[in-house]
Each structure stands twice: as C-alpha cells, then as structure tokens.
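tool_call: predict_structure(chain=1)
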Amino acid sequence: MFALLFLQRPCVGCGFCCAKAQCPPGREAYGDRRRCPGLFWDGARYRCRLVMTDAQVAAVLQVGEGCCRPLNRWRKDVRERVKPL
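tool_result:
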C-alpha cells in the first residue's frame, strides 16, 4: 500500500491512459473504438469530454485521485501525440 501511495502523482494531462485503452464509460458513450473520441488536446494538455460534462464519470474513473502510470515517459513531455479524429 505504501509503495502505491508513494508512486501516485497528479495527472498532468499527458493522454497516456486514454490513448492506450478506452475506458468503460467511453465505450458506453461512443462504442468500442481504437481511440476514444472523448479524448482531445486543448493546446496544453489532453482532456476528456465525458469527464468535463459528467461528474459521475469523473467519480467512476477516479479523476483527481492521481496518475495510475506515474513512471510513463509521456508525463515528462506533455504534447499532442495523437492526430485528432
């Protein structure tokens, strides 16, 4: 448990999670897609349209609880990586 808490970091909007796998609420809203249409680049970071419009989705995805992949390289180089749909 301590190791997990130690590794958690705030979300920086790198998009790694959403670019690698579509979440269950995303599949429900948009169907099973290679990349979720809810993911978008706002000019400074990636954001989720579902999370921005539905507090229940934010709670299900534990938004604000910390990054689940704190050691991924994208965190140190936040930039647009995927082409818009």
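agent: The chain has a mean pLDDT of 85. Proceeding to next step.
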